[in-house]
């Protein structure tokens, strides 16, 4: 019986060590992708984040062009590996926050179309830097710092945009059913 317990204990310990090793590797991969994002942001075309245009229509047009730009296509290529690595993290708060940052950064042009100038090279870099700080604190087994006031404001804007979009979608669906 003692031998059986020792074997079970050993298997659990090895499984735990493997899980921790995989999570450590995912965290390192995520950190690498976040650093890659910061480097890519350094080359962001100035006009995409300036928040200035002739008028609202011109600004929305510029954001549509930004979405289709080569710079944005290269930026989007960073997100898949970062997202996969983030989903591997078991710490729910850390995982949720970083996934939120990745979602916002992946749709920066949409947020900027509605709130001109909100997402510029500096603000986006600060969001990525904050994610690196959270990840580093978690790896050091320290408390994960709270999001900055600027991050909270951007998260709230994004949530409002998503909520408004869902409300419009529901209205459209119920309106279509009423006519059908």
Count of separate DSSP helical elements:
8
Strand-pairing-aware structural class: mainly alpha
Count of beta strands: 0
Low-confidence stretches: none
Radius of gyration from CA coordinates? 21 Å
User: What's the order of the H and E elements?
Assistant: HHHHHHHH
The proportion of residues in beta strands is under 5%
Query: Which percent bin holds the helix content?
Result: over 70%
Shape summary: elongated
What are the salient characteristics of this protein?
8 helices, elongated, about 80% helix, single chain, mainly alpha
Describe this structure in words.
- With 180 residues, the protein is mainly alpha-helical.
- Helices cover 82% and strands 0% of the residues.
- The protein is built from eight helices and no strands.
- The longest helix is centred in the N-terminal third of the chain and has 40 residues, at 2-41.
Question: In a nutshell, what does this entry contain?
Answer:
The protein has 180 residues and is an all-alpha fold. The chain contains 8 helices and no strands.
